[in-house]
Amino acid sequence: MATEQESNLFKQQPAGDTDPATQPLPLRLAPRDLSEFVGQENAVGPGTPLRRALEADRLSSLIIHGPPGVGKTALANIVARRTDAAFERLNAVLAGKDDLRAVIERARQRQQAQSRRTILFFDEIHRFNKAQQDALLPSVEKRTLILIGATTQNPYYYLNNALISRSLLVEFKKLSEDNLRILLNRALRDERGYDGEVELTAEAEEYILDVAGGDGRRLLQGLEIAVLTAEQKTINRDLLEGVYQEKYVDYDRDADHHYDVASAFIKSIRGSDPDAAIYYLARMLEAGEDPRFIARRLIIAASEDIGNAAPYALTLTVAAQQAVETVGLPEAQIPLAQATTYLASSPKSNASYEAIKKARQAIRDGLELPVPPHLRDSSYGSEKDKQASGEYQYPHNYPGAYVKQDYLTEPQDFYKPTSHGQESRLKKYLDELAGE
Predict the structure, then answer these.
(1) How far is CA 298 from the centre of its chain?
(2) SS3 annotation, the chain
(3) Residue 318, pLDDT score
(4) Neighbouring-strand partners of residue 121
(5) Would you tell me how many other CB atoms lie within 10 Å of the CB of residue 312?
(6) What is the mean pLDDT of each run of 10 residues along the chain (436 residues)?
(7) Could you give the CA distance from residue 222 to residue 239 in angstroms, rounded to a whole number?
(8) 138 upstream amide cis, omega within 30 of 0
(9) Which residues contact 224 (CB under 8 A, 6 or more apart)?
(10) What is the pLDDT, as a whole number, of residue 381?
(11) In the prediction, which pLDDT does 19 show?
């Protein structure tokens, strides 16, 4: 391939990392072409649309999302090796908007001077905020850039809808045990790995396949550390347990366990069990869940399940979200825990949630009430019309800042406050007004 492509491929890496002998095992074993790519058969297996596009070098912009260690970067490297387009690489953790502008300008010049395409692999693309992502839109739309965006997060939460609509969305899932076994055998047998000089006991092999949890990089990194620290060529389970130390948490941010644990978290809050809620919070954090996702769930729960029974819950959860953005992990776990235990320990009311749900359903069912004349905007219409409509009575001019008048042309009964917590005060107040 072209020299420009090769230099771009490694330009953000230290010079010594390009020497295969010094590269970590996962890099040494990275697939060189699609025949060596392991897993993701539904996305890039033989005959799939993406596979055909890759083989024909007719790639369009795509966003690859999935957990770590499942082949997102490996696929981009294969594209870099086989494409006739110029290949650029950015990582949102290291790059800024100026770096992106420079890539776009080089791509524009290539397109004008050489009619040559540019492919940009943008790793961790979710780390760019949506304003920064906007800078990509014109180039992607005009095909000045062909984007390969990679993210471990749900793109619908973190990427601009406009960017998503201009890209093919591809989901990579965690590797199966069979996929991991292929990687392990390749590491042990391939000349780029240990070339048959290292063995695993049967017990060690089953352990490493289990503890990797569908993450190919985790499997290979653990194996490499074990080999480097071993005093013998046969690796046993005890050595691997010392390497991994912590058991893999069975929790996939993009699969069923993600939703199961998040659901259990909210239901424990709703059920007023702070111990269960804090357990599920800890489980999500230990598994690497994005704390912003947790903060959003807490804000929703504060209004849906607690509501006016403890109105401070919403303030606290919004503050927790701001704390997450300001301090990040690990410190952000403390405000998240504070909000979680407060919500789980608070009186509950879903009256506000039920009220808006009923009101919207009534509108969908055809309820369309005209605004009473005395509530209409007084800044337009003739004086005669205003007099005919009746006078609006300003509540603050009456005792208790209340005066009885119609606010709907047909009475409705959407909000039904409970007797729980502080909402009981609202219920008492409204009941007193209704009794007048």
Answers:
(1) 16
(2) CCHHHHHHHHCCCCHHHHCHHHCCHHHHCCCCCHHHCCCCHHHHCCCCHHHHHHHCCCCCCEEEECCCCCCHHHHHHHHHHHCCCEEEEEECCCCCHHHHHHHHHHHHHHHHHHCCCEEEEEECHHHCCHHHHHHHHHHHHCCCCEEEEEECCCHHHHCCHHHHHCCEEEECCCCCHHHHHHHHHHHHHCCCCCCCCCEECHHHHHHHHHHCCCCHHHHHHHHHHHHHHCCCCEECHHHHHHHHCCCCCCCCCCCHHHHHHHHHHHHHHHCCCHHHHHHHHHHHHHCCCCHHHHHHHHHHHHHHHHHHHCCHHHHHHHHHHHHHHHHCCCCCHHHHHHHHHHHHHCCCCCHHHHHHHHHHHHHHCCCCCCCCHHHCCCCCCCHHHHHHHCCCCCHHHCHHHCCCCCCCCCCCCCCCCCCCCCHHHHHHHHHHHHCC
(3) 96
(4) 89, 148
(5) 12
(6) 39 46 84 90 87 86 89 89 87 85 91 88 85 85 88 83 88 90 92 89 89 88 87 84 64 57 92 92 86 92 94 95 87 94 94 92 88 76 52 86 85 88 87 78
(7) 10
(8) no
(9) 24, 25, 26
(10) 55
(11) 60
Q: What contacts 71, CB < 8 A, 6 or more positions away?
A: 37, 38, 39, 40, 172, 175, 216
pLDDT computed for residue 271 by the predictor: 92
| Other residues' Cβ atoms within 10 Å of the Cβ of residue 284 | 24
Which residue has tokens 């009794």? 435
- How many CB atoms within 10 Å of residue 182? 16
Burial class of residue 288, CB neighbours in 10 A (0-12, 13-18, 19+): middle
- Distance between first and last Cα of the chain: 85
CB 302 within 8 A of CB 314: yes
Which are the contacts of 392, defined by CB distance < 8 A and separation ≥ 6? 374, 375, 378, 405
Give the Cβ contact number of residue 148 at 10 Å: 27
Contact partners, residue 102, CB within 8 Å, separation at least 6: none
CA neighbor of 367 nearest in space, from 417, 407, 416, 408: 408
In this structure, which amino acid lies at residue 347?
P
* Residue-level pLDDT at 11: 38
User: Which residue is listed with tokens 């005959």?
Assistant: 47
